[in-house]
From TrEMBL:
This is Indoleacetamide hydrolase. Gene3D superfamilies: Amidase signature (AS) domain. It comes from Bradyrhizobium lablabi. It comes from the Bacteria. InterPro entries: Amidase, Amidase_CS, Amidase_dom, AS_sf.
Amino acid sequence: MAFKEYGEHDAVGLADLVRKKEVTPKELLDEAIARTAKVDPQINAVVVQHYDHAERQIARGLPDGPFTGVPFLLKDLDLLEGTRTTSGASVLKEFVADHSGTLAQRFVNAGVSIFGKSSSPEFGLMPTTESRLFGPTRNPWNLEHSSGGSSGGAAAAVAARILPFAHASDGGGSIRIPASASGVFGLKPSRARNPLGPDRGEGWGGFACGHVVSISVRDSAVMMDAIHGPEPSSPYVAPPPERPFSQEVGRDPGKLRISFTDKSPYGDAIDPEIAAAVRETASLLAGLGHHVEERAPKLPADPAATITSIVGANTALTVRLLEQRFGREMTDKDLEILTLAHSNNAKKATATDYVAAQLAAFQISRALAAFFEGCDVFLSPTLCAPPLRIGELNTMSNDLSHIAPILRRYMPGTSMFNMSGQPAMSVPLAWNKAGLPLGMMFSARFGDEATLFRLAGQLEQERPWRNRLPPVCA
């Protein structure tokens, strides 16, 4: 190993060592590469390796930012000029980006050295990361289980301590789901907090956003300070923060009004160990001086049906653009059966159906806004079942009828906050008897990441998780 103390620091700590000239960016990169070689054959998280790109970044001189010299992975859905980006799809396995996305460029400006891409399911469509192109990404806590999705590679790499943080994105839970399944911290920001251009004004009808998963809360906050804010193509802007997000971590959250539920939004029973963990977390919050009551929002529309319509239409556009690029119809040799099914189902819908789904998302948003008039934070389980087993969701099956019931049981509560655009985070506060992580989800009003960062900092102090390591660990 190039730098033996690497694992003792979060990204802020590593950047501080670089500033003090106690370690060089090349030494940190060498350590990240060595750690990848050690554990990635088991977990399959770093699916595109461009170490030479990172070495050239360092040789040219990294920008002076809060994370100068810290190794970093970009999710294999976002473009970084001159590097391969596959989106987990066979048809794009050799695609090399000719420009960078705005968010990727802001990561570069923050000073990180991007040495590879983390795995994603094809086009980020599943809450597990098992693309046909690269195979399954496995959970460092138990290799028979999924690390979550769609940012499964990012969460697995961070959990296994290849690096302290990594890019992640969330259109229906894809930061929070893998953070929960892999036992790391993941905060989905408010809509329009972080940029999505230059190729998109918004993702999945405004549901999608990008940020990071991390070991520490402060890494998430400091990175948000570095990357947030509008760009010239932004269709709308998130409310500006009162102060830097980094100053919220460690700040007294005060006595918050926290509502909680240990039930699925559909009223279905959830895993008993997860329900118990939610109640134990509620007791912990009450012990910290917060006002805690059992109370849950009533939704006027079905989140699953709503997101299926929106995502399906966006997937159909992706398929159309691929067909235009390659000059032929996409088949199951090019794309997974699930992707093609999403596209085909969307083609059968009408423009009116799409507008109806947008209206349903608005109605869900309005119900949540009314609910948060009575509380500052809502606590619920990130996932309502333990991390899925590898192979439980099969996107290449000719019969896809197994997928919807599993999604309803597994992740019924994440997508509503993509529809409302509210910030929400998964905090690694519990593990089940089998040793698998169980994240607790906290959501706040639109634009109020500050409250979540303050609460997360308090919980991190009260129930530290950084030194709890999985069996597969670098």
